[in-house]
Each structure stands twice: as structure tokens, then as C-alpha cells.
Specification:
311 residues; alpha+beta; D-Maltodextrin-Binding Protein, domain 2; seven-stranded mixed sheet; two-stranded antiparallel ribbon; 11 helices; 15% strand
Length: 311
């Protein structure tokens, strides 16, 4: 099937020193390429005036945050716990290893000293009482709403919460990337560029798909995203707000991709990793599974997928 659009349009989206390409598939070559339209990341939301940005990560971990200075966490839906563990892991495990684990690629392992240290750090937070009571059964929306009402000083959550929190809290909420592992290093955290949209080479209506990707990555679409509290990936700096938590989001994302590293969501690794990771973190933090068993379960899921993929 011929097409006047497919294979002809190309838009490069700069992300972290590289380029994320929006490219129309060439059907006879069997390509499947596309791209996202917004950026996002997991970082630290905080009540302004009560707490600040602490550097480096060791000092942040050592800060007294029990009681009023509690960390808010929700694990009922399981996946939010991964957004807490991911930035902790990024302080100990090299970014290239996390990318291999998160993308389900060969060459890494969950059963390493660095992953063990990250996991024990998460348990230290639990044992120190940093998290809200009953976090393993907490509802996602109820938790960030409690934070907006003044409970807890920190909330490790995604940039997608910023618009709702700003509406509820005004200037009393801030956003910053997790502190780097050591002074002078750039921040590393979990994040991505949103859902990638693509046109399959086998599509019967590729022009329609190409037109839609053109639309959602256009300048007009970027303006709409910015107006609705999202961070566009095209002409991002042009849409950076003048003040408020949304400006913090843009600044943190720029700092991470320019000076540090963005690492993938860990549940992307395999078709079953979302359940494996989510259930594992619940069991780990609920003291129903020890560190070795937790990492061994993740390794088994990851290793089986890598073997299958290479077979």
C-alpha cells in the first residue's frame, strides 16, 4: 500500500544528550518507529517552608524525617512503590545497569551488592518510620490528597501529580529531583518521555496514524499540553512556566537529562515484572520477604525473559 505521509516526515526530540525520533515507518522495511509527546519523572514533592533540598543523597537519607517530616508512600496499587524504590536504586546502581534491567536487556543482574544496598536502604526507611502508617494498603489518590492537606513533608511521586497539587496547595508545594549519590554528580531518577505512539508497518491505514502522530507532536499540541499541566517534549523551554511547582518540574527534568541520567520504570522489563516487582516490594516492606528472596525473585523473572529473548 502506498502512502504520501509514511516514511516522509521526521521530527527529532532531544532527550538527555541524544535524540528521540518520531519517524514514519517504511512499510517494506518492516520498521516500527514513533515517539512520545510529553515528559515525566518520579521525584521528590515537598511542602515549601517546612523542608528543603538536601545534598548529597547520604545527607538526605540521614535527615531526620520521622513524625512531621514523614515520607508519604502508597503501595495498595503496587506500582507506586516502584517509583519510590527506583530513585533509591539510582543512587547506588550504575545507570547503564538499571537501563538493562528496566528494558529487559542482557548484561545485568538484580543479585548484586549495589542492588542489595539499595534494597536495604529502602528497608531502613521503613524501619525508621519514614513512611505513613498503613502505607501497604494506602490508596494512591487518597495519599496525595492527604499530602496536599498537610500530612507528611515529602511525597515521592510522579510529575503528573504537580498540576493537581498546585491547584490544591498553591505556592506551598515544590518539586526536585532526588539528590545525587555524591556531591558534584548529577541527579539520576526514574522517568521517561511518556507513552510512545507509533504506526505499525502492517497498518492498513498508515496515513491516519501518521497524521495523528503529527498532530500530537505539533507545536499546537505542545501548547495544549503545557496549558493542561503537562511537560511537552517539543520546544520544552518555550513552555516553561515563570514560577510554581510546574517550573520546578521543568527545571528538575532538564537537570536530570542534562547533568545526570533518566532511567526506565523497572516494571517495563518483562511482561510479568509489574506484578513481580509490585508484589515483591509489598512483601519486602511488610517484612514478609527478606532482601535475598526479593532480589532472587526479580532476577528469576528478568533472567527468564532475557533467555527467552535470546533463544
Amino acid at each position: 500500500m502506498g502512502s504520501s505521509r509514511v516514511g516522509q516526515r521526521h521530527r527529532a526530540l532531544p532527550v538527555g544528550g541524544g535524540a528521540l525520533h518520531v519517524q514514519r515507518p517504511v512499510q517494506d522495511a518492516g520498521l516500527l518507529e514513533g515517539g512520545p509527546h510529553r515528559g515525566e519523572g518520579a521525584a521528590q514533592l515537598h511542602h515549601c517552608g517546612r523542608v528543603g533540598r538536601r545534598q548529597p543523597f547520604g545527607e538526605f537519607l540521614g535527615a531526620e524525617r520521622a513524625g512531621e517530616h514523614g515520607e508519604h508512600l502508597v503501595a495498595l496499587d503496587q506500582w507506586p512503590a516502584g517509583h519510590v524504590f527506583g530513585p533509591i536504586q539510582a543512587a547506588f546502581v550504575p545507570a547503564e545497569d538499571i537501563r538493562a534491567l528496566g528494558f529487559g536487556n542482557a548484561g545485568a543482574s538484580w543479585e548484586t551488592a549495589a542492588n542489595e544496598e539499595a534494597t536495604r536502604t529502602l528497608l531502613d526507611w521503613v524501619e525508621a518510620g519514614y513512611f505513613n502508617d498503613g502505607f501497604n494498603g494506602a490508596d494512591y489518590d487518597a495519599t496525595w490528597q492527604d499530602f496536599a492537606d498537610g500530612q507528611g513533608a515529602y511525597l515521592i511521586g510522579g510529575s503528573w501529580l504537580a498540576a493537581d497539587l498546585e491547584e490544591a496547595m498553591g505556592e506551598d508545594v515544590g518539586f526536585f529531583a532526588p539528590p545525587p549519590a555524591a556531591a558534584g554528580q548529577g541527579p539520576v531518577t526514574t522517568g521517561a518521555t511518556g507513552i510512545p505512539f507509533a504506526v505499525s508497518a502492517k497498518s492498513e491505514i498508515p496515513d491516519v496514524g501518521a497524521a495523528y502522530i503529527d498532530f500530537i507532536t505539533s507545536s499546537d499540541a505542545m501548547a495544549v499540553l503545557a496549558e493542561t499541566g503537562n511537560m511537552p517534549v517539543v520546544d520544552t523551554a518555550d513552555h516553561m512556566p515563570d514560577a510554581g511547582v510546574q517550573r520546578d518540574v521543568y527545571a528538575a527534568y532538564d537537570d536530570v537529562v542534562t547533568n545526570g541520567a533518566l532511567v526506565p520504570y523497572l516494571d517495563w522489563a518483562t511482561p510479568t515484572m509489574a506484578d513481580t516487582l509490585g508484589q515483591g516490594l509489598q512483601s519486602l516492606m511488610g517484612e514478609q520477604q527478606d532482601v535475598d528472596d526479593f532480589l532472587g525473585t526479580l532476577e528469576a523473572d528478568y533472567a527468564a525473559f532475557v533467555e527467552q529473548s535470546e533463544g
